[in-house]
From TrEMBL:
InterPro entries: Gfo/Idh/MocA-like_OxRdtase_N, Gfo/Idh/MocA_Oxidoreductase, GFO_IDH_MocA-like_dom, NAD(P)-bd_dom_sf. Residues 134-258 form the GFO/IDH/MocA-like oxidoreductase domain. It comes from Neobacillus rhizophilus. SUPFAM superfamilies: Glyceraldehyde-3-phosphate dehydrogenase-like, C-terminal domain, NAD(P)-binding Rossmann-fold domains. GO terms for molecular function: nucleotide binding. This is Gfo/Idh/MocA family oxidoreductase. Residues 4-118 form the Gfo/Idh/MocA-like oxidoreductase N-terminal domain. The lineage of its organism: Bacteria, Bacillati, Bacillota, Bacilli, Bacillales. Coiled coil: none annotated. PANTHER family: D-GLUCOSIDE 3-DEHYDROGENASE, UDP-N-ACETYL-2-AMINO-2-DEOXY-D-GLUCURONATE OXIDASE. Pfam families: GFO_IDH_MocA, GFO_IDH_MocA_C3.
């Protein structure tokens, strides 16, 4: 195999963009093998934009066509695990657009079937893992440069969505069609990065608001508190109604602090002595002298790094990693086993608010599914989930 022939399932905004990247030769070692969408309008669009590329309205026909080596799944979220499983069964490599699924029970099934066929590559398209900024932050944490984590905070309110956004499609912002709001649509990348860099919490307590500033059934505002089980805590804040938006990620350690602003600038403050050492050894007079003039250069060294980001670059890098994994057995940046962590965090935040109490991780998957199905039944638009 010289190039990986890829089929795109789902030609919405993301699927169409990926098809354009591949057909334009922007993804190394990848070629566009086939397209799939149920809509006749999408079929006409595909014939115009991608002439000669086979088109299917049934994804199983695409999987069995012989035209592809792999698929990228860009359909509504509930279909991600189901379609991934059918691809694996047919020995087709799979890259799933985030999220891996809506509830952990269905993602576990995907992971189990993937584990039974290790020769088939199954990844999640967490493109932010290719971002050099977040790779650098993870490297600093993994190397112990700021010591053990004491507190994490991420306020990500830059995904403003007006009411018209939710009215584009009937399935959007519904429990049965989309499976949630900001936690399953706009914030999965941040939730993935949060746990990828800082680890998974042991407990979650949340205040999630449903239809707070938008006429929708699902969440548009989230505040959650993480308990890591060792004294460290975290806070995650997200919403879709802040038109001015804030993106600020802070990680406090015993030996320093990392602050990420707007996913563009990283400020790293490394203490010469750990906070624990200073607390144990400094006299009150020494402390007073340090803070007297407001200059803290004697206790820490500051480094500021700036990063540029080109839209699409991280997506193509994630797809190149997928192709390289198939062709050269390069490790996947986001294997399917990792995808369940982001789903677990979203499930925990929903469940905590639904129950009105702190929940432990891993969440009770049957309890979560029962609570989700209550809301799907109330909508009376979609069948309950199993």
């Amino acid at each position: 195999m010289v190039q990986v022939k890829v089929g795109i399932i789902g030609l919405g905004a993301q699927g169409s963009a990926y098809a354009e990247f591949i057909s334009a030769g922007k993804v190394k070692n990848m070629a566009l093998g086939a397209l799939c969408a149920t809509s006749a309008t999408k079929k006409e669009m595909a014939a115009e934009k991608f002439p000669g590329v086979p088109f299917y309205q049934d994804y199983t026909e695409l999987l069995e066509s012989g035209n592809i080596d792999a698929v990228i799944i860009c359909t509504p979220h509930y279909l991600h695990p189901e379609m991934g499983i059918e691809a694996i069964k047919r020995d087709v490599h799979v890259l799933i657009e985030k999220p891996a699924g809506i509830y952990t029970k269905q993602v576990k099934e995907l992971n189990e079937i993937a584990a039974a066929k290790p020769e088939i590559k199954v990844g999640i398209l967490f493109n932010q893992r290719t971002n050099p900024l977040y790779q650098k932050v993870k490297e600093i944490i993994d190397n112990g440069e700021i010591g053990g984590i004491r507190r994490t905070n991420w306020m990500i309110t830059t995904s403003w969505r007006p009411q018209g956004y939710y009215e584009q499609n009937e399935w959007r912002a519904t429990w049965g069609g989309e499976g949630g709001g900001i936690l399953v649509n706009q914030a999965p990348h941040q939730l993935d990065l949060f746990q990828w860099i800082c680890g998974m919490p042991k407990k979650v307590y949340s205040n999630v608001k449903f239809g707070y500033q938008r006429n929708i059934a699902v969440e548009d505002d989230v505040t959650a508190v993480f308990d890591y089980g060792n004294g460290a805590t975290g806070v995650f804040i997200a919403c879709t109604h802040d038109v001015m938006g804030t993106d600020r990620f802070e990680i406090l350690g015993d030996k320093g602090k990392i602050v990420v602003d707007d996913s563009k600038k990283v400020t790293i403050k490394r203490l010469y002595k750990s906070e624990s050492e200073m607390s144990a050894s400094l006299t009150q007079e020494e402390v007073a002298n340090i803070f007297k003039h407001g200059y803290l250069g004697d206790i820490y060294k500051e480094e500021v790094l700036e990063f540029n980001s080109v839209w699409g670059g991280q997506h193509t890098a994630a797809m190149e990693n997928f192709a390289s994994s198939i062709l050269e057995d390069t490790p996947l940046l986001a294997p399917c086993n990792d995808g369940i962590n982001q789903v677990e965090l979203a499930n925990a935040m929903h469940l905590s608010t639904w129950l009105g109490k702190e929940v432990e991780l891993p969440v009770d998957e049957e309890l979560f599914l029962a609570e989700l199905n209550k809301r799907i039944s109330e909508e009376n638009k979609y069948p309950i989930k199993k």
